[in-house]
Amino acid sequence: MRIEVNGEPHDIAAPTLLDALRELGWAEARVVTAVNGDFVPLSARAAHDLRDGDRIEVLTPMQGG
Amino acid sequence: MLFYGTELSSRMMLGTAQYPSPAIMEDAFRRSGASVATVSLRREGGRGQGFWDIVRKLGVHLLPNTAGCHSAREAVTTARMAREMFETNWIKLEVIGHSDTLQPDPFGLLDAAETLSAEGFEVFPYTTEDQVLAQRLLDAGCKVLMPWGAPIGSGLGLNNRHGLRMLRAAFPDVPMVIDAGLGLPSHAAEAMEMGFDAILLNTAIAQAGDPALMACAFARAVEAGRMARDADPMSPRDMAVPSTPVIGKAWL
CA B10, CA B178: separation in Å to the nearest integer? Predict the structure, then answer.
């Protein structure tokens, strides 16, 4: 399945958002996620099925004003 | 002064961006005495954990922002993500309406403020000095307002003193933070003298030649301005009034 992660195309086998994060190497990372512009909380990642063409945002704390 | 029930030890809120190094940022925070640090969320590129560790060590309240969001929907999603990441209901709500001025989009701001307040967020809206918008934001559930001094990063100071004074007078009991546009400590002192409760700044300190020294200068200006407000300043007059007694002057 081809999805977009932080603006970059990725081919992944993982069926859910939780699995996709593991596959992408973010299993232990402190990140928050959105799919197609909607927030997906940590508790909902395992049950969130991904579809071809989904846009995933994986965000982390950063400097801000 | 309480911000959503939290008493702050300092009237300065400081951004965490644009410093020459993390060590200089830490130094600037220490010298400023700031009680709140603004932070953001950006795409994971491997540097997030390091920044998170530095920011937690500052030991101040975290105020995540929705910087760069140009629609209510983007801002609402960002706020929800920030709440999970930073474990706070506080959100500095920015909905930008114009990319040159970074002026708030009042319609998107109100829309997002309504949604987020209903979800239990404690919204710090980055707004203009418009009184009608201020009332609508309060009606939406905001208990703090953050009127701009001048466009973000401009360093121009208080661009519309009359409007800011009117806003302060219209809502005397609402905690208000002058957010954005301050360039010099004198701007901060003036904001405090006008009765604003706190200031939020970033660029003026981070981009100074010596950020830690400038942080100290701003801290003293905030303190001086607040003291002056509490001390009930004299009213200005058009004509001179001699301060030395006239009675008893020698006839020479």
Answer: 14
